[in-house]
Amino acid sequence: AQKVTQAQTEISVVEKEDVTLDCVYETRDTTYYLFWYKQPPSGELVFLIRRNSFDEQNEISGRYSWNFQKSTSSFNFTITASQVVDSAVYFCALSEARSNTGKLIFGQGTTLQVKP
Amino acid sequence: NAGVMQNPRHLVRRRGQEARLRCSPMKGHSHVYWYRQLPEEGLKFMVYLQKENIIDESGMPKERFSAEFPKEGPSILRIQQVVRGDSAAYFCASSPLTGRNTEAFFGQGTRLTVV
After folding, report:
1. Chain A residues contacting B via beta carbons under 8 Å
2. Is the Cβ–Cβ distance between A39 and A64 less than 8 Å?
3. Pairing mode, if any, of strands A110-115 and A88-96?
4. Three-class SS of residue A97?
5. Running DSSP on this structure, what letter comes out for residue A15?
6. For residues B41 and A45, what is the distance between their CA atoms, to the nearest angstrom?
7. Beta strands at A32-39 and A88-96: parallel, antiparallel or unpaired
8. Residue in A91, A97, A103 closest to B48 by CB
9. Which of A57, A85, B69, B101 has its CA 20 to 30 A from that of B82?
10. For residue A36, what is the nearest residue in chain B, using CA coordinates?
């Protein structure tokens, strides 16, 4: 069965701290896609990254970085030198190729609060 | 190129009324997804449609909910005889292809409140 678990419900940090959001997934498919989305207080969903199961290379984009480890079925997200504007709910999601639909299975989300 | 447009942004309905949520996909996108976000929860897949076809409705409640994506016009998510438990944010996403290789673009959501 497919599942995405974000064990951290809420995280609070002080500005400029680094923070890592955990994501663990379950799937029987060998080809799948992992995503991170940001949902700021205004409510929209902002796409951050997509990673396919064959690409385990870590990625860095500015203050954001992602660590994909197939061996532990994890796709963690790190924000370096956090800022108040990073305060949001962050969702990890999984899409299985075999479903051939592209539908996303979301985790419960992690609420990140960055205090000044 | 406008993004995915959902309207209304906020919708208030009394118990027993009907709610109609509209989603206009991005230009050139023929695949639409609906997701529901209950308070304090993550998004749950409801239905996946292509033009004039429902492809996967495995996440749709069996009763009162329906969706369509006509040849012309927006996709509609219809909830009949709404109840308080239907209060949620409903998000639409669109993609140009079967989404496994592409990013789905989300609208800003419709927040339904049932009073």
Report:
1. 6, 31, 33, 35, 37, 43-45, 47, 50, 91, 93, 95-97, 99-109
2. no
3. antiparallel
4. helix
5. T
6. 14
7. antiparallel
8. A103
9. B69
10. B103
Element holding B95 (H helix, E strand): strand B88-95
A41: region left, alpha or beta (phi > 0 left; psi from -120 to 50 alpha) = alpha
Length of chain B: 115
When CB atoms are compared, the residue of B42, B98, B108 closest to A43 is B108
CB under 8 Å to B82, separation ≥6 — which residues? B13, B14, B15, B16, B17, B18, B19, B64, B112, B114
Alpha helices in chain B (DSSP H): none
The length of chain A in residues reads: 116
What is the tens place of the pLDDT at every residue in B1-53?
A: 568 999 999 999 999 999 999 999 998 888 999 999 998 788 999 999 998 89
Letter for the amino acid at B114? V
Nearest to B98 among A91, A100, A105 (CB): A100
